[in-house]
Amino acid sequence: MDDHKSEGLSWADQWDPEPLPAAGDGGRRKGNRDNAGKSNAAKKFLTFQWVALITGGDSGIGRAVSYYFTLEGATVAFTYVKGQEVEDKDQTLKILHGIKAQGAKDPIALPTDVGFEESCKQVVDQVEGSCIINTASLAAYQGNQNLLDYSSTKGAIVAFTRSLSQQLISRGIHVNAVAPGPVWTPLQPTSTPAEKIAQLGSEVPLDRADEPYEIAPSYVFLASNDCASYITGQVVHPNGGSIVNA
């Protein structure tokens, strides 16, 4: 197993918001920008008046998204599964407390499931002139013979994003999605055979899997009025160079 893939496995156990470079590559990894995982922009695109509600924000991509929204100045609330993810929740809250902007409210962890229709309706009814960002996948566009259910639901999310964007546009709510490629999350080592884990990401041009911190800025971009005020019904593809035509 090469360096960047073994690093991904360690990430699955404990996320480091400032990942270390792989050993033996001079402090850089193929396809990575310098100082990956750090925000060095002179201007923040969000302010503490923004509130970001992030589902599954206690680990994986959700934790990285929570981190970046907090880093950019937003107040963050995230959901987790009560009774199953308490340790992840506590660790995420500790990280977010350490970086929250002056004026922003403390991060909040919500033991709830917005998968229920009534919960979703309550969220949408309370926002005006805001945005919704869904998470799709490269599998929605390329398919995966071993992940039929997963690929199908991610394809549905793409269609849902496009349709919902048309339904909510009159209320000033933008709806977009992010479709990552293969990515190191805690789900990978628990759901993928060991022999395939060693090859995770080898199918994309960058020849490695994404790290969650490389995906999270796409969500901040889509939430920013400065960057994405003219974007709705679209999908952003941080997928390691795979070409998709939709």
Automatic annotation (TrEMBL):
Region annotated Disordered, chain positions: 1-36
**Keywords for the protein's UniProt record, in alphabetical order:** Oxidoreductase
The keyword Iron appears for this protein: no
Spell out the molecular function terms from Gene Ontology: oxidoreductase activity, acting on CH-OH group of donors
InterPro entries hit by this protein: NAD(P)-bd_dom_sf (IPR036291), Sc_DH/Rdtase_CS (IPR020904), SDR_fam (IPR002347)
The family database entries (Gene3D superfamilies) matched by this protein are listed as:
NAD(P)-binding Rossmann-like Domain
- Compositional bias, Basic and acidic residues, is annotated for 26-36
Q: Which Pfam families match?
A: adh_short_C2
What's the family? Belongs to the short-chain dehydrogenases/reductases (SDR) family.
Q: What is this protein called?
A: NAD(P)-binding protein
